[in-house]
Specification:
Elements (H helix, E strand, L loop, with lengths): L3 H7 L6 E4 L5 H11 L2 E4 L6 H13 L1 H15 L4 H10 L2
Amino acid sequence: MVPLAMALAGRGHDVRWLCVLQAADQFINARQGAAAGAAVALAPGEVSAEAIGHAVGRLLVEPDFGLAAGRVRAEIEGMPSPDDVGAVLEGLR
């Protein structure tokens, strides 16, 4: 399942994610992104310049993140467009 934030911000792109978690649904989105293989998540107690540098290095160098990001992109591209969803919802009235 593609996290909503990834779907909205990464539509049509092979986006690799560094998630610096603070609150709300970020933990759920980060967990889903990491499960998809396209994200590295840093919990509040893990954030430091060194940890961020290491995570960014992994995202840029390790090919599995790019491959996973491509799979996420393909999944997003296979989803109905907002117009298609709107038409279905209109039909439910």
